[in-house]
Amino acid sequence: MKLSILDQAPISAGKTAQEALQSSVKLAQLGEELGYHRYWIAEHHDLFGLACPNPDVMLGVIGAQTNTIRIGAGAVLLPYYKPFRVAETYHLLATLFPGRIDLGIGRAPGGSAEVSMALSDNYLKQVREYPQQIDELNNFFTHNFPKDHPYGKIKPTPVPPIPLQTWLLGTSEKSAVLAAEKGLDYAFGHFMTNAQGPEVVKLYRKNFRKFHDSHGRVIVAMHVICAETTEKAEKLAESVLLWKVLQEKVTGPHKIPSRDTVKNYSFTTKEKEKIDQLKKKMIIGNPIQVKEKIIALNTQYEANEIMIVTITYDEEAKFTSYRLLAEQFKN
Fold this sequence. Notes:
Blueprint: E1 2-7, H1 17-34, E2 38-41, H2 55-64, E3 70-77, H3 83-96, E4 101-106, H4 113-119, H5 123-128, H6 130-142, E5 165-170, H7 173-182, E6 185-189, H8 197-212, E7 218-226, H9 230-246, H10 259-264, H11 269-280, E8 282-285, H12 287-301, E9 305-309, H13 315-330
Parallel strand pairs: 1-2, 1-9, 2-3, 3-4, 4-5, 5-6, 6-7, 7-8, 7-9
Helix pairs in contact: 1-13, 2-3, 3-6, 7-8, 9-11, 12-13
């Protein structure tokens, strides 16, 4: 089973955005060392203490400090950008780092309504035109515009020696059908939705065969916290669970809270119920337990690849989680 990394570049309390981004570089390097197949970094805008609004910039930095691991965006939020600009940027990255670049695309806002207004003159219009944007982007990558089309005479240069891989990210039946129709590989965010994920992925495969008479690849992204013991993993998870609770509050720094903050926080009954629901979407435990749970979940998905997002207050605990997981799947 291929394992990969999804990084949201979270900032821990007491740390700076610079330190969080430096940690992202170290995580990509660790992933390469441990044999993870790919590393993706997400795009967020002024959201919950997440440090990366621009995956493109980070991929240039990370690509220069790694050698073999595939790197990509998970995802570029396409409604904010012109497809030609995205194609140019990722052709440039694929030229710098041949055979290593992935472009994940999505349509989520990645921030507040005010952020969407600041980034786009008409975000909702762009969302409605998302399928057409995907077509335009694909045509730029494949040089498939008719000769008499206004874009038929231009190319997003430089053209890389090895084409990049494009994925559509989603959490719903609508995104699954769209990915299938457009002939794109599909990355499903299991950790982000209450949808019946295995059924969504089955729908993607069914529609892909119908439209293309072939098979698309599937990545399933899961939220995992692994530690030497189950008790330690549960303690580590408390910080990210409180972080999720605090996201619903208007005020506050929204950084990953420390263990001391967790200990001193008085949870309401409603917040405890929310945490119970959140834990159902997470895999928490010791290495053997985590491996068993991932395999059991993937028995339902039959994914080609599992992408792991791990968020902890302590950087070393996060690195240890990825390390323990890699060791288990080598056995």
